[in-house]
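Hi support team,

I'm filing this because I wasn't sure whether my run with pyridoxal-5'-phosphate finished correctly. The job status page said complete, but I'd like someone to confirm that the output block is well-formed before I use it downstream. Pasting the exact inputs I used:
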Amino acid sequence: MSRVYNFSAGPAVLPEEVLQEAADEMLDYRGSGMSVMEMSHRSKTYDTIIKEAEQDLRDVMNIPDNYKVLFLQGGAHLQFAMIPMNLMKNRKAGYIVTGQWAKKAFNEAKIYGEAVELASSADKTFSYIPDCSDLPITDDMDYVYICENNTIYGTKYKTLPNTKGKVLVSDVSSCFLSEPIDVTKYGVIYGGVQKNIGPAGVVIVIIREDLIPEECLPGTPTMMKYKTHADADSLYNTPPAYGIYICGKVFKWIKKMGGLEVMQKRNQEKAKILYDFLDSSELFKGTVVPEDRSLMNVPFVTGSEELDAKFIKEATAAGFVSLKGHRTVGGMRASIYNAMPKEGVEKLVAFMKEFEANNK
Ligand SMILES: *Cc1c(COP(=O)(O)O)cnc(C)c1O
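And here is everything the job wrote out:
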């Protein structure tokens, strides 16, 4: 067996021991005589799996009792629509546009009501987070929406926006469980799990109970009402059962590692190794202003498309894979999620140093 260092932005690297455990349980899950994939989602065995997953996530994130945890499908993209359909009572909401994912959510919301762009960093290719201390938020807005970690551009909010009392909705797809957060500061926290938690196909929504409406916008399908899933404990229809099982294992892995404080410390150490090198290198440069740098996604360039391509090719051959930047940005991007070992980042930097020396 030979595992590479996988710097993919998503689907992305998972903890090896989680994968090994899942492999060991593949044919016979704990004496059930079947795989979790083959199991009724109404069975007692599966019920324990999903309940434990929820409880472990609650423990890890310190989620208060007045928040519901929903395991849904449709990726982050379906939430771009579900959020306005469920929350846009006044048909008006504010969006902070810090990259492609925020922009897509913003455009989707326009289908349902008035989506107002409160701030944007499009003027400098989304390389920074705008000042969000005094945004033009009006009283009739139902919520303020952010994408907390911008996977493509490598920026991250270091302080949450001043929402002037409005509900904060946050897409945390690419920073989910990367550090401790105060759940009570948010109305809705959601993310696709394929970046930092598990296999694609599961999206987790953490929503304050009083925000789950009895009535959504007219025409909202049953499957797109938060209430449908909240009332059924995420078992209204067949959930992405196997994916949730893997997520549950990752929650246990995080617990075992020491929780989100430890994750944050590890992530800070890893990111520092890479950013320190980028700041000292004469060839490679980071593309984000230092104060808004993401701990999870690190974009960088050489300044020459030819050298970028050469680097990606040689890195791939050396076992550092999926370093190509997003197709809309170019250059390189190293995604260094929770499951990327420090050693992977150290070896990548050693490889970059060598490449720099050879390409002076
Ligand atoms: C990947 C990503 C998305 C899109 O996720 P899908 O599951 O493909 O819909 C949205 N937001 C962020 C922050 C992402 O990183």
